[in-house]
Specification:
By secondary structure, this protein is an alpha+beta fold. It has two helices and six strands; from the N terminus they run αβαβββββ.
């Protein structure tokens, strides 16, 4: 009984090691894809985004024009920043 349990240790260890190598490969490819998207020039944000095309905007820089609606600002928090209490200020952009 003890021998059968000890024999499983190298098999499980090999399986976990193989899984980690495959995971590393996937993560390395994903990071390379995101880094490539971050260095590309920004895209204009379309007026309407097709839900099927959202994948194309993952980690892409975009730009939009409009004016900030300070009358509709929201405070999100409380939040800590370098040991200081505060809030995140969210200001909507009205495109136009």
């Amino acid at each position: 009984m003890i021998f059968s349990h000890t024999a499983l240790i190298p098999i499980i260890t090999f399986g976990l090691g193989t899984w980690q190598v495959q995971r590393l490969d996937r993560k390395t490819k994903m990071i390379a894809r995101f880094e490539d998207r971050l260095i590309r020039p920004p895209l204009p944000l379309p007026p309407r985004i097709d839900p099927d095309a959202i994948y194309e905007f993952d980690f892409r820089r975009v730009y939009a024009t409009g004016h900030y609606r300070h009358d509709k600002e929201m405070l999100v928090g409380p939040r800590m920043n370098e040991g200081e209490d505060g809030f995140l200020v969210v200001t909507p952009l009205e495109r136009g």
